[in-house]
Hints:
The protein is built from 2 helices and 25 strands. By secondary structure, the protein is mainly beta. The protein starts with 6 loop residues before the first helix and ends with a strand.
Amino acid sequence: MIVERRAATAVLAAALLLTAGCSSDGTWPPEGGASASASAPAASAPAPEQTAEATPPAKGSVKVLRTVATGLNSPWGLAPLPGGGGLLVSSRDEATITRIDESSGAKTELGKVPGVEAAGEGGLLGIALSPDYASDRMVYAYFTSASDNRIVRMLYDPKKPAGRQLGSPDTVFKGIPKGFVHNGGRIAFGPDKMLYAGTGESGDTGLSQDKESLGGKILRLTPEGEPAPGNPFPDSPVYSLGHRNVQGLAWDDKQRLFASEFGQDTWDELNAIRPGADYGWPTVEGRAGKAGFQDPVAQWPTDQASPSGIAYAEGSVWMAGLRGQRLWRIPLKGTEESAPPQAFLEGEYGRLRTVVSAGGDKLWLVTSNTDGRGKPKKGDDRVLELRVS
């Protein structure tokens, strides 16, 4: 069901209960908070907790096992099909979804998503499989339309001819502010089978704290697009606020949610997300120790990161850097950084957009050199398979 119809009132109700940053990935205005003292309202979704647990080693490793596929244009989202059935990859600018064979690298276009208007940082962005994909074969997508950013779902039928394997999109949520920059775009189903979406403030810094805006938030929805049961604010899709541009969402092995965020001029961030918490933008950027705002787990100068996708593996969060052109490892103990972040692949593959768990100690990594800000080399863009520790 489309939720845009009551988004403004829902967010208003949410924000009234509150007491109460991301870096550009390049040449356009940037697309990166501080320690939380305020307690978050109770929610049914798993909240980060401080627990005694094993600490990963201070130093890790990354080995590129192989190049899975080359020749991709403006790839953005990646969703692995179950059972080694292939990798679905979205093209931001072409508005297509392509299946990549994991063994041969062969590409098959599923189809073009109608209604996408690609411009600047907008277009066809994140994709995710339904938590009931085995029975419903639904693919969810977040994209920029002529009027807003929205989430749709489409039936994927691999038995149909290439280019016609996507059914008509069913809009489940709309009304997210759009802009030339800061459209957010990452979507993922959590361990609770609810749909999470990272949004941006579309270049309007006031929206992150705006009581009537869905911009600069993390949203938590049912698969049908309704505010998820147990959200911190009654009848609201808002899960957290005070974000600048969220493009990375991942859960650790304790079901705790982390998010990457672009800062403006000073600090990019990795945040541990608590329901109902305020992450400070535009009041603070990076660690500020300011009451009422949540400090990030880790932070980076904006030229070293501009983080997009994140994934969890081997006790660490792995974060893809666009402007920074490197893969960051952030070893965790509890919800805190247990050792300084460690950089890998610096400058070797250019801009890095998306990283997704491939199970165990393996990751899928997607480059982003054909997005208008990179310097494409022969074979760009590509999907890599990594082994990490």
